[in-house]
Amino acid sequence: MNLSLLLGGKRGVWADAENATALMNLCLRHGISHHGFRWGEDGSVFLEISLLSAGRLERLCQASSISITMLKEGGLPPFLWRYRKRAGLILGALFALVLIVLSTRFVWSVQVRGNESMTKAQVLEELKSCGFGVGSYIPNVRTEDLETRVLIASDRISWIAIHMDGTVAVVQVIEHVTPPEEEDRTRPANLIAARDGQIELIQLYRGNCLVKIGQAVKAGELLVSGLYDSATLGYRYTRAAGQIMARTEHQFDIEIPFSYEEKLYEERECREIVLNFFDFSMKIFKNSRNEGVECDIIKEEKTWTLFGRYTLPVGVFVTEAIPYRTEAAQRTPEQALDLAYSELESRLSTFSEDVQMLRRDVKSEWTDSSLILHCTVYCIEDIAVQREFEIVD
User: Fold this and answer.
1) CATH topology of domain 109-175
2) Domain boundaries of the chain, sorted by first residue
3) Does domain 3-80 have CATH number 3.90.1150.10?
């Protein structure tokens, strides 16, 4: 939307295909600016001009025998004239306009970029603790001082840059990354089996290996000892380390009943509306009906923008509920099988990238009330885990 047309008034102009080109040439020759130009599918043309130019264009078209249609007027002047006898409404509109103009000296919204483990709300809370946020007076904002205060106060942000884009504060952050704790090699440890398996490969870095390739081991069994027993040097301790690759099996049993409870949703209803203006909140609607009924709750934040660019400091939080009731329903065998395989894929997706799946055997068991999917997955994986032990004199 063009601001000058909104404040000064506008009028639409339409011409059919026969007069469209002549109209555009006429505007070009006489320097009549226009906005909102668009062609119709039939070759007609539509454009918007200011109210000051409307009378001139109409006279020029009559003198040049160009047929046009002047459409309805729009913008602020026609609106004020239409409601000239309702002074309260006009004053309210003017007050709102003045309020919008004055509010451009305040921060309307804050955009956060670069955050990964921190949420936007957490970053905004860090800024708020340093005296900055929605509603801050822009002329008083000293970004360099603000950035320094945030870095001193926050133990989660290692770098921050703040710049103002009109009434929008754009905040770029880099989070502080805590380096992983280094392994304390002074504490002795063994390697034990995390699960049952048959050993396929041994890569030993430190320790006294107690197993060999081809050997079957049980979960919890000692694989590599951190204790050396030497006849000449006596007992020595170390922190056992290495990879013990083994052939393992994972068993999944997934049962899908044929009978289940189905949700049947009813019409959505509004439960609560909260109006936000800058940093102030006010509840303007609350519906307490049917609060004891089972519902799915949906919360949505609605905001508006000015000219499609600036986010207004006004928004509403709407809480809606979708009541539902449950009814007994039946799955077909085909639906149960599809659901079981979907659940199986979901469970397999949780495997670590270090686990190499060799094959899987799947068997279906059908009963009167359910389908049971039995799946055995054969893998190659590292089963060695460190377990520290205390040295007792």
Assistant:
1) Ubiquitin-like (UB roll) (3.10.20)
2) 3-80, 109-175, 189-241+384-388, 272-326
3) no
Our CA angle for 199, 202, 203, nearest 5°, is: 155
For residue range 47-95, what is the model confidence (pLDDT) as tens digits? 888 888 888 888 898 888 888 888 877 776 776 666 666 666 666 666 6
Give the global pTM: 0.52
pLDDT in tens, 30-46: 888 887 788 888 888 88
Give the C-alpha separation, 223 to 216, whole Å.
11
Say how far apart CA 383 and CA 196 lie, in whole Å.
Answer: 8
Query: Residue 171 forms beta bridges with which residues?
Result: 112, 162
Q: Could you give the CA distance from residue 302 to residue 275 in angstroms, rounded to a whole number?
A: 10
Residues 301-334: b if buried by 16+ CB within 10 A, e if exposed: eeeeeeeeebbebebbebbbbebeeeeeeebeee
